[in-house]
Every structure is written in structure tokens, then in C-alpha cells.
Amino acid sequence: MMRFPSQTPRSLFSRILRIGIVATSLTIVIASLIGFAYALWPQKELVASGFANPTSATAVGHGTENIGLLGAKYGNGKIPTNELEEIAPGRKLVPAAAEHFIQMKKALHKDGHELQVNSAYRTLAEQERLVKRQGLLSDGGTAAPAGESEHGLGLSVDLKLSSEALQWMETRAGSFGFKNTVQGEPWHWTYMGDR
């Protein structure tokens, strides 16, 4: 009687190798399913249930507050304006950044300085227009690529400051969670979270 290779007894090494391949395949499938579930699950529910660190979903990824969750939830430049808070006429930030900005502005005013908010949250379309008008940072312009701006996360402001107010910002803004994050742009300040 003729025997086929599949009918011969398997060696111990062959059995262990097959078990390893099956176990690895199962692990990959389970990890993929968990990854898909995590990606599709609303971030607020993950944070509330303890399965996500609030800062893990931030694009800027600083601080201890949920500062970037709106950007992670909706996308850079796609945050609905009703989710943002006004800090000056027509200028908005995410709630945590807005609260700290207003506190900082009051302290700056108390110390005898003024500031003007030239820009805050920007939609994707506004950032695209800015790129066309001013050029990309990487090409010598002053704009971040659309979809990559800190303004699109509702965390950054561009300010008009006197030299005295700028000096105040350089020494005191950090205590309110703000930092100058773009070298060569002393007007650009980003909320990084509580320090």
C-alpha cells in the first residue's frame, strides 16, 4: 500500500513548530481585534472606564488634562465650534486651554500689560488658506501644513504683544500651562497643560 507524506507520523519538532505557528496566529488575530475595538470605541468612554490615559489621545501630548481629546475625537481643524470656548471676539480654544488663557490674560493685565488675540482655533479650510497665503514653515513660510497645526487642535493662540508683555509671557506663561512652541515666532503660544 502506498503512503503519502501527510500520512507519515510527524516529528516532535514538527508538532512544536505547528503549535507555535497556530499560537502566534491566534495572538495576532486577538491583538488586531483589540486594536480595532480601541480605535472604534469613543475616547471619552475609554478614559472614563480606565482603559485609556487621557493624554494618550493628544496630538501635542502634554499635561494631565484631556486637552487634546477634542482634536483626537474630531480631527485637526474639524472640532465643532460649539465644543470650544471663546477667549476673544471670534477666537476660541478647547475648554481647558480657554480657562487657563483667561486666567493668564487677567494676570498679565493686573501686571499692567495688554495683549491682542490675532488667531486661535483654525478650521482645516482656514489653515489651508493660510498655507496658500503665507507658505509652509518647511519652505520658509510661517504656516504648518493643514491638519498638523496646533491651532487646529484648539490649543494655540497667536498674540500681539508689546516687548514688555512678551517678556512677561516668557517668564510667566508657563505657570498657566502655555509655552512658545514655534522657534522664531514669539507670537505663537500653545497650551501644554498644567505644570
TrEMBL record:
<feature type="transmembrane region" description="Helical">
    <location>
        <begin position="21"/>
        <end position="41"/>
    </location>
</feature>
<dbReference type="InterPro" id="IPR003709">
    <property type="entry name" value="VanY-like_core_dom"/>
</dbReference>
<dbReference type="Pfam" id="PF02557">
    <property type="entry name" value="VanY"/>
</dbReference>
<keyword id="KW-0472">Membrane</keyword>
<keyword id="KW-0812">Transmembrane</keyword>
<protein>
    <recommendedName>
        <fullName>D-alanyl-D-alanine carboxypeptidase-like core domain-containing protein</fullName>
    </recommendedName>
</protein>
<dbReference type="InterPro" id="IPR052179">
    <property type="entry name" value="DD-CPase-like"/>
</dbReference>
<feature type="domain" description="D-alanyl-D-alanine carboxypeptidase-like core">
    <location>
        <begin position="92"/>
        <end position="194"/>
    </location>
</feature>
<dbReference type="InterPro" id="IPR009045">
    <property type="entry name" value="Zn_M74/Hedgehog-like"/>
</dbReference>
<keyword id="KW-1133">Transmembrane helix</keyword>
